[in-house]
Amino acid sequence: MSHSDLKSHKMNRQEARKLVNVIMAGKHQSVVFTKHAREELLKDNLTTVDAINVLKSPDAKICLVVAFESAKTLIVVTAWRK
Questions:
Q1: What is the bridge-based pairing of β-strands 73-81 and 30-33?
Q2: Residue 62 forms beta bridges with which residues?
Q3: Mean pLDDT across 25-29
Q4: ∠ CA 35-37-38, rounded to 5°
Q5: Can you tell me the distance from the alpha carbon of 1 to that of 63, in angstroms, rounded to the nearest whole number?
Q6: pTM for the complete prediction?
Q7: Which helix (H) or strand (E) holds 39?
Q8: Which residues does 46 contact at the CB level (< 8 Å), separation at least 6?
Q9: Residue 60's pLDDT is what?
Q10: Strand ranges (DSSP E) for 1-82?
Q11: pLDDT tens string 38-52
């Protein structure tokens, strides 16, 4: 999937999970947190490490909304505890 495809393509859950897995398995994984995401994590007594762990293993009671800047960069837009 090209960079331009990522900007205009809404992924379903399975597609997004596959790309998250590829990014997280990469040597130079790039995860960026928006200011809003950091604030929301703090509200629920969570850290960016907690969010990274959710990205690595989806079995968690934390929800993340992510966007893909490229096939190598993931942006955490917001987060909350279920």
A1: parallel
A2: 81
A3: 80
A4: 65
A5: 25
A6: 0.83
A7: helix 35-43
A8: 62, 79, 81
A9: 79
A10: 30-33, 62-68, 73-81
A11: 999 999 999 999 999
